[in-house]
Amino acid sequence: MKHFQQFIETFCRISAQEREDLEALFEPVTIKKMDHVFTAGDSIRDLIYFDEGICRVYLIKDGEEFTTKFLTGPSIYAELFSIRNNTPTLINIQSINVTCYYRASFAKVEKMMQDSANLRKLFLKLYEHIYILGTKRQISFIKDSQTERYFKLLTEQPELLQTVPLQFIASFLGMKPETLSRIRKKMK
User: Fold this and answer.
1) Per-residue pLDDT tens over the stretch 118-134
2) How do the domains of the chain map onto residue ranges?
3) How many Å apart are CA 108 and CA 171, to the nearest integer?
């Protein structure tokens, strides 16, 4: 968890002891390129911290995959619909490259939060951050053209365009691969 402390401190300061206690809840997992962290139908109970690598989050409808987000290390993810409703997830998370992540029981993390105002503040800030990112994406799909969405991705997360297959980028941007190819060709 070499980036964990720096990641946490972008949101909130916690004591060294709180960080160590939190880190102790996580167990490491390394997966190969194109392996899954989890797939639709799994019951999710863990909070996941991505330290290194890139993963895509996607849904499948009528056999077609729709990429909804990319998770790049360092970042944190909780499939709250499955956790809170105690139901299988509809979401898939797949690695784009070799990915190192850590998982911790969501229930154990929540129990630890009950005893620490700093950890409650940390997770509130994390939830706010995730909410803001989701809202920005929704607004972009309503307000921005496909070309504008591509340009934002190009300027805000250029590393994705170097690593992620174009069909996943196109899906994430809400377009077909052919449309993305035309946009890229025009921008050259």
Assistant:
1) 999 999 999 999 999 99
2) 4-115
3) 35
CB within 8 Å of 182: residues ≥ 6 apart: none
Candidate CATH numbers 2.60.200.40, 3.30.70.1230, 2.60.40.10, 2.60.120.10; the one for domain 4-115: 2.60.120.10
Report the distance separating Cα 147 and Cα 154, nearest Å.
10
CA 24 to CA 48: how far, in whole Å? 13
48-82: pLDDT as tens digits = 999 999 999 999 999 999 999 999 989 999 999 99
Count Cβ atoms within 10 A of the Cβ of residue 68 and give its class: 0-12 exposed, 13-18 middle, 19 or more buried.
Answer: middle
